[in-house]
Description:
This protein has a five-stranded antiparallel β-sheet with strand order 4-3-2-1-5, with helices on one face. 47% of the residues lie in helices and 12% in strands. The longest helix has 67 residues, at 58-124. The protein is built from three helices and five strands; from the N terminus they run H-H-H-E-E-E-E-E. The chain starts with 22 loop residues before the first helix and ends in a 5-residue tail after the last strand. The chain is rod-shaped and about 150 Å long.
Amino acid sequence: xxxxxxxxxxxxxxxxxxxxxxxxxxxxxxxxxxxxxxxxxxxxxxxxxxxxxxxxxxxxxxxxxxxxxxxxxxxxxxxxxxxxxxxxxxxxxxxxxxxxxxxxxxxxxxxxxxxxxxxxxxxxxxxxxxxxxxxxxxxxxxxxxxxxxxxxxxxxxxxxxxxxxxxxxxxxxxxxxxxxxxxxxxxxxxxxxxxxxxxxxxxxxxxx
Length: 208
């Protein structure tokens, strides 16, 4: 008696389909380190694509957005600080230039006054007392002050100068007539080493 042969049924195979990773999400993370603005833009694009297609790579897209965004923000901040720093530097240079120009005029007037005093000394055998000298160096700048302080014998002196901006300068007849900047203001001048000696004030503008 014959029996019918039935072959065994094949075992069903389970096929797991994996979603592919969004290409723009990968590129977003790469460009976030290479060129942040592109990484930020690609991250936003890929995140929208993933929402529609269900692809993998959401984490990559978010990382690209975060890293790219932070880097772009830092870059903008650094540019603003650089522009601000350059602006402040420019203002400082302009102020320094104005200050140097301001003090150079007063220094020139101090040297001219010293020259006039030496000419007066040569002609008269003594330095001039206050108001007794015909100054020839021109009109002082508005707000510019000069003060001559003599020693008690009136054989040497020092010239104090105040610029229109309030800087204080000092020059002595001893040595090489170097002019130095000093702290304080006009009200604090005490004629340095000659506090009790005669003085001669020259206030600008004072003479034609």
